[in-house]
Amino acid sequence: MYKKFFGLRANPFSVSPDPRYLFLTRHMQEALDCLTYGIQSRKGFVLLTGEVGTGKTTLINMLLELLREQQVATAFIFNSRLDKQQFLDYMMADFDIPHDSKSRSQGLIQFYNWLLDRFRAGETAVLIVDEAQNLSEELLEEIRMMTNVETSTEKLLQILLVGQPELDQKLKQPQLRQLRQRIALRARTYPLSLEETKAYVNQRLRIAGSSGRQIFDPASLAAIYHYANGIPRVVNLICEHCLVSAFADQQKVVHVDAVDAVVRDLDLGDENALADIAPPVSPVRRVPPAPAPPRPPASAAPGSKSDLREALKSLTDLADRLRESEPDLRKKTKS
Known about the structure:
Number of domains: 2
Mean pLDDT: 83
CATH topology of the largest domain: Rossmann fold
Strand order of the largest sheet: 2-3-4-1-5
Oligomer: single chain
Distance between the termini: 73 Å
Number of helices: 13
């Protein structure tokens, strides 16, 4: 709808985890390096955790692309509400292993033989389980048992568990200590900083076809960071609605007022976008930000005739009240 208006070829702020838009901050690059190293070194279990919306699935999609380019066999399980048989069936189907037996034990034997064949051919297999914080303890133990197929030096199956911080807490339970002890490497995703948020928004616009002209002014980017708390998914949500709103108003640049209005509509935060992000006056002593001036009515643009009429009406009302109280003041003065 707004792509042509802003000179874009694609939607830059879709919430789909498109690996083309992966923004490699220092933390994200470290996480990708950690996952890649763990798989290449056949470490067995690797753990990736992070808050909701911080880019875990986008990172995993990038990793899957890299692995498939290297002809690595992969299975990606994103439904963690499965029982043991369903998990096995889903995994074997995604690994493209023929599986007709209804017997779970026969299915596991078939799967282990497939792993041995790949190992003899110098190849590996990677199982990625998303939303792993929702896995039952029974299924987590089942996944642990799958790594028992190993040589004296290497694991035949590489398993990446991906989940929210609750996964870390779940793995601390005493009954899961065997699994916790087998996790060789841990990686984590983090929210963006203010500068990273600015670069993130501009990179997505550039990938979507922007010519480089300003679409979000600096104050609006600061407000977006403030409201989103640096969470990329929320940044996308706010930016998407801001572009729609700017297109509706035929505004080529998104300003902070537009961000505030969008956030109010989405119920994401308070009205004052800049109160908590104004820089301190002194590098040593912080002072509270000055109160924001009252906003004009949403239907009136700043400096419009309706503003002037409202101001004149207020002054007229004040003068009338003063004239009405003047006789009382004179009586008090005489007494």
